[in-house]
Design brief:
Layout (H helix, E strand, L loop, with lengths): L13 H14 L12 H8 L3 H13 L3 E4 L3 E4 L6 H24 L4 H27 L10 E6 L3 H13 L4 E6 L2 H9 L5 E4 L11 H7 L5 E15 L20 E4 L4 H13 L12 E2 L2 H9 L5 E5 H6 L3 E15 H4 L5 H7 L2 H10 L2 E2 L6 E4 L1
Length: about 375
């Protein structure tokens, strides 16, 4: 199956997205001259699209001479795809697209810093969704850690995604794996030595304290560093102009509202269940409670696609998908790192970026975060 991600939030037609992705796969040598592409029917089935959409994409590529379709021989990458002129033309097209959008945004009064934050957050969201699907297919979570790889396991967060993107930008040789298995999953991965660090936001019901009680309970006797990344706002995400007139958590019981949930073990799911108990709301009363997604971005995208009316998530995810948002909770998101890993030179570049002023500016511009204590570190045993 071709590695194709379709963005339903953009105005670019689906067939053009498919054609551009094939061009990219060829340009990066992931598809080689003479290699066969899936049949129209097969790709339409894989992407859950109408056959005509695939036909239009293939026709566009065939007109450019990038692919060749022959009766009885299928569709394959042509020799022209290796022509340097094709790569130059493709890069020129990309430059024109980027320049046009930058000029348009600047003309609307946006600052270069706002453009930088918006670009990184949308690129990070796209990478997250693609990586998350690949991890589920390949079962990477169960593989032992390569000593040269930073494996981050835990709860999804856009600030964390930006941190990883910045690390890859500054240190391209860095190997980073990110597995979104929820906050509890992150701590269990540390317990079983299947992670370098974990990203968590877990509220302890008894003490009202975030994260440390869980670290103490699940990792007793082990010295751990807890590095603060950000306070963030959680709330209800729903379509622009609030067509269902949602105003509070109690509205989830309404029969005309469809909810989309986070996976068991995620900090967001634990927070939701705690609040439902406080308000005397049963999960059986919520239409869609059993439907689960692994990231805030996935929940926001599902709502933007009208697959659900509302979900609980962070403000930054709502903003990236142009959703309305009602703030409900302010929570703490931390990085939990075994002391030995914290002092290892492997993590030095990542930990340095956390306290970098430029990185702080990017996170601040995203919205929905309080970074006043970013980088503060405490050691526990």
């Amino acid at each position: 199956m071709l590695d194709i991600y379709l963005d339903s939030t953009t105005q670019v037609p689906l067939y053009q997205q498919i054609a551009e992705r094939v061009r990219q796969l060829i340009a990066t040598n992931q598809l080689k001259s003479g290699e066969h592409l899936p049949t129209v029917r097969q790709l339409a089935s894989d992407l859950h699209l109408n056959i005509n959409t695939i036909v239009r994409a293939y026709l566009e590529l065939e007109k450019e001479g990038i692919i060749i379709s022959r009766r009885g021989a299928g569709t394959m990458v042509s020799t022209k795809a290796n022509d340097p002129k094709f790569l130059i033309q493709r890069q020129r097209r990309l430059s024109n697209v980027v320049s046009s959008n930058i000029i348009e945004a600047l003309s609307l009064g946006y600052s270069p810093e706002e453009l930088d934050a918006a670009f990184h957050i949308h690129l990070a969201r796209w990478k997250e969704e693609r990586t998350n699907r690949a991890e589920k297919i390949n079962g990477k979570f169960n593989k032992p850690i390569d000593e040269s790889t930073i494996r981050i396991v835990g709860s999804h967060d856009l600030a964390l995604s930006l941190l990883i993107s910045q690390l890859k930008h500054e240190k391209p040789e860095s190997e980073v794996e990110v597995i979104y298995s929820g906050s509890l999953g992150g701590l269990i991965a540390l317990q079983e030595e299947r992670a370098t660090l974990a990203g968590i936001h877990l509220l302890d019901e008894e003490t009202g304290e975030y994260n440390y009680p869980y670290v103490k309970h699940l990792l007793p006797g082990r010295e751990m560093a807890i590095v603060h990344l950000a306070y963030r706002i959680q709330g209800l995400m729903f379509a622009r102009n609030n067509p269902k007139r949602i105003s509070e958590l109690g509205d989830l019981k309404r029969p005309d509202i469809t909810f989309i949930n986070r996976q068991k073990g995620s900090g967001t799911r634990i927070l939701l269940d705690l609040e439902l108990r406080k308000q005397g709301i049963l999960s059986l009363e919520i239409n869609g409670y059993e439907r689960e997604l692994d990231t805030h971005s996935a929940v926001a995208i599902s709502i933007a696609r009208n697959e659900a009316d509302v979900g609980l998530g962070i403000q930054a995810a709502a903003q990236t998908c142009d959703l309305d948002f009602i703030p409900l909770f302010r929570e703490r998101y931390d990085l939990v790192i075994p002391a030995a890993n914290y002092h290892n030179a492997q993590l030095e570049p990542l930990l340095r970026i956390v306290t970098d002023d430029e990185f702080k500016k990017v996170i601040d511009n995203v919205g929905g975060y309080d970074i006043s204590q970013i980088g503060s570190t405490n050691f526990y045993k």
